[in-house]
Design brief:
The protein contains three helices and 13 strands, in the order ββββααβββαββββββ. The chain is mainly beta and about 240 residues long. The longest helix has 9 residues, at about 85-95. The two termini are about 30 Å apart. Keywords: Disulfide bond, Seed storage protein, Storage protein. It comes from Linum tenue. One of its GO terms (molecular function) is nutrient reservoir activity. Belongs to the 11S seed storage protein (globulins) family.
């Protein structure tokens, strides 16, 4: 697909997006996401919601649509803010009847992506050099300030892990008190999480599409099924 991204005090970047892309979006970024192909496009949003308008939920500000910011202002205010006549305001604000996801008219053409706009914004975890490569075990790609400097502003890091069938990810935890959110991309396996007091707090089987959280200082380990398993985690430290 294609994404348009406007970072605070920056010009709009229009990027082509494909499987494996990790995109760093700081607070205040304005985005649009467009799938011009027939194939399904799935975008997984992971982030820190503790300081959201409603703690635990993303705070999205839609510009237009049924719950859009500009829908709540009178046409007089919007026309003066945008410096357009009121009939144009009504078309811009009122033409989108949906909430969040809309079907575009075939005559609408969005900007084409620019290859150079991907720099500093996107890191493809499927194509990146491997940070860990264990024969018959698995592979790891780590996303941090070295390969995507923008994560320093966000305060989050990430990794993509792929285990071969029957392989194990040894027990581990973050020594700088980071917590971890893990989304299972494909395959299945068993996971155990143990607290600092030595008590097991989670033992379950996970599969593609499921997500679980490892609290600060808790230790996690995984053993995948014969078909293997891959997961994407974000960690609350850019290091």
């Amino acid at each position: 697909g294609v994404a348009g991204i406007v970072l605070p005090e920056k010009d709009e970047k229009v990027i082509g997006i494909r499987k494996g892309d990790a995109i760093a979006l700081p607070f205040g970024a304005v985005t649009w996401w467009y799938n011009k192909e027939d194939a399904e496009l799935i975008v997984l949003f992971l982030g820190d919601t503790s300081k959201g308008h409603k703690a635990g939920s993303f705070t999205d500000f839609y510009l237009t649509g049924t719950n859009g910011i500009f829908t709540g202002f009178s046409s007089e205010f919007v026309s003066r803010a945008w410096d357009v006549d009121e009939s144009t305001v009504k078309a811009l604000v009122g033409s989108q009847s949906g909430k969040g996801i809309v079907k575009l008219d075939g005559s609408i053409k969005l900007p084409d992506p620019k290859k150079e706009d991907r720099e500093r914004l996107v890191y493809n975890c499927e194509e990146a050099p491997l940070d860990v490569d264990i024969k018959n075990g698995g592979r790891v790609v780590v996303l941090n300030t070295k390969n995507l400097p923008l994560v320093a502003e966000i305060g989050l890091g990430a990794d993509l892990v792929k285990l071969d069938g029957g392989a194990m990810c040894s027990p581990g935890f973050s020594c700088d008190s980071a917590l971890q959110v893990t989304y299972i991309v494909s395959g299945s396996g068993r996971v155990q999480v143990v607290g600092v007091d030595g008590k097991r707090v989670l033992e379950t089987t996970v599969k593609a599409g499921q997500l679980f959280i490892v609290p600060r200082f808790f230790v996690v380990s995984k053993i995948c099924d014969p078909d293997g398993m891959s997961w994407f985690s974000i960690i609350t430290t850019p290091k």
